[in-house]
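Structural prep section.
Before we set up the soaks we want a predicted structure of the protein with MTE in place, mainly to decide which crystallisation condition to try first. Input record follows.
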Amino acid sequence: MGAMNVISTSSKDGLRAKGGVGQSIAHESANRHVRGSAIYVDDMPETEGLLHAWVILSDRAHAKITTLDLSAVKVAPGVVCVCTADDIPGANDVAPILSNEPLLAKNVVEYWGQAISIIAAETEAQARAAASLAVIEYENLPALLTIDAALEAKSLVIKPMVMVRGDVDGAFARVGHMLEGEVRAGGQDHFYLETHVAQAEPAEEDEMRVISSTQHPSEVQHIVCRLLGAPYAAITVEVRRMGGGFGGKESQASQIAGMAAVLARLSRRPVRLRLSRDVDMMMTGKRHDVLGRFKLGFDDTGRIEAADIVIAIRAGNVPDLSGPVLQRALCHVDNAYYLPNVRVNGYACKTHTVSNTAFRGFGGPQGMVVAEAMIAHVAAKLGKTLDEVRAVNYYGGEGRDTTPYGQRVTDNNMPRILKEVEESASIAARREANAAFNASSPIVKKGLALFPLKFGISFNMPTLNQAGALIHVYTDGSVHLNQGGTEMGQGLYLKVAQVVAESFQIDIEHVRVSSTRTDKVPNTSATAASAGSDLNGMAALAAAETIKARMRDVAAAKFGVAVDEVIFANGRIYGGQKSLSFAELAKCCWLERVSLSAAGFYKTPDIHFDAETCTGEPFYYFTYGVCAAEAAIDTLTGENRILRADIIEDVGASLNPVIDIGQIEGAFIQGMGWLTMEELWWDKDGRLKTHAPSTYKIPTSRDIPVDFRVKLLGDAPNAKPTIFRSKAIGEPPFMLALACFLALQDAVASVVGAEKALRLEAPATPEAILRALGRVE
Ligand code: MTE
Ligand code: HPA
Ligand code: MOS
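Run finished without errors. Recording the tokens verbatim:
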């Protein structure tokens, strides 16, 4: 590590500081997580006067509220404050991008589980008991619950999106083969272990401190201010860590924090709101389910010449983040394949269901489901394998390196990764073995499939690609690090601390990362788009380098050497024959009245995107990965298992290999859950019936592939000068789980043939597998 670094780091006599970049060290809170001493919002001691909040939810999907009688709620034991839409001091609006997305429903409810009123009481039990006393009467209105119903009614939350490249109609006129197909994939609940939670503590006048389990403290700050009618400078939002976010706390944490803040303002007392699992699942948004329709024109080899694609996602009642999610879906419907003539129409459907939101991959997975369905349809039609069809469609070669939105693919690691997986996972031999197994096994059938991944890194709104950090060096040599990113388990705090340790060449134990706070680093972006370490790592590096330059000047004067002869290495600073410890030099700086504090800032260079025309270079770079998965199905029960998964993922020069491997494992299993078992089910009246672990099945430790092999692509520093040439890791491996779905489809195909196996829908639950096998209706 280190050879390709953007800045030079130093070592002296081969000694390096402990915990610098590239070293496999444990999560900064690993011990605290295991011992139970890591403090989450709900673990904070209950201060004097703390109230507990609860939410009254709608039990209709779409209805006019004819009666809202809260008189019994108000006089219930322990109740201190009851709030409806009319009582909100500022605007009743929590929209992250647009406007008119109510915190509390007024007059009309637009989904089952929508918040109508909030209550604060002395205890949570009292608040819950009071909530049950609300009398609400409704007059039903017609409800659109599905993508199909919304498409038919032309019900959309934002205007349609179109992405076009080449001459689609002309290309269709020339091609030898055509087909039309359709694919669907379900939604997914985030199921973070820590449900949404916030605590609001009023201070002097209009000031307030809000502790929120959020990926986006600045947005919580802005939305709390909008609800209260307060200036941003009056409100401070803070988060030490989340017990998982996965995108679910990117925009929607502001609702929970907003509720706590409004109740705190009205009662002038601190308020904590922690959703139960059921309420969390009912009230907050999920991954968008998707419907893809495509018409493809291709040649005898399976090379796609023309593609006319529709991607429709279920947005729910309001836009929230559905615009950028749909945009990312459009920008990933190519996946790793060159589509010369392509038109994609995107629709974010307005339905009377909860507003869906960011979820790991942010539309990328939905786009790729469509991409792989296109490959599978062409393969089935021509009687070829997926890999044969992919081989003639991959990016690469003369004139075949530009995405539909106009960005060139210049850093293509796919050929290398594919080859390494094909060899290390013995794909050819295992295919033969599986064919033999299937020929002699009447009930259990095996399938094997690869999935190649290309994923674009950067927020697809260029403005969001900025970050800040604040560093103080104290005179004992310890370092306080604050940065704009949040910690949700992904190891961001550790990675940024490693960057700072590397820069100063001090052991990481001297770097203390502090809670993310809007009063330390302002105007931040969400920790999302997998860009946390890319952005905040760079900002922290900038801050550290600023301080280091000042320290270097002091050292040079002290040692009587030129500035460029001063070396920071292994906890000491050397010049000529002299040296000082980092702490000694910090003390010298103080004596010389030199500032040891600095802010750093970073913005991703070179990116631009026109959201209207869907063209530009939205991504600073691409990440690549390949997964080969082997699955078995029981053709009598539909039960299935992933027997083996081999993954190679391109993370550039990893900042921390063990953290990255952990991210790959976790993301992959989460993706497997989405595609093979997690099923959200609404009844005909739009009630979500799967709102607890009893009915909603996420993968457990026993669902991990029996044989699970995860590797980082070796010797592959990022071609772009990212933070120490690393690449983002948080979301991309989620999509590698598509290999599991395709392996299950392959197993189904061994029974009913490739064309009929295309009926398999995600999630590939036992029922879905039996349906695809034609065993049940
Ligand atoms: N890992 C853990 N343990 N918990 C999480 O909530 N969220 C994922 C990913 N990995 C998540 C996680 C998502 S959706 C994103 S966008 C990234 O982490 C965000 O963090 P990063 O940008 O620092 O990778
Ligand atoms: N990812 C996550 N969040 C976002 C994005 C993105 O690409 N764009 C806007 N918000
Ligand atoms: Mo991740 S879905 O970008 O929070």
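Observations: The radius of gyration is 27 Å.
Flagged for discussion at group meeting.
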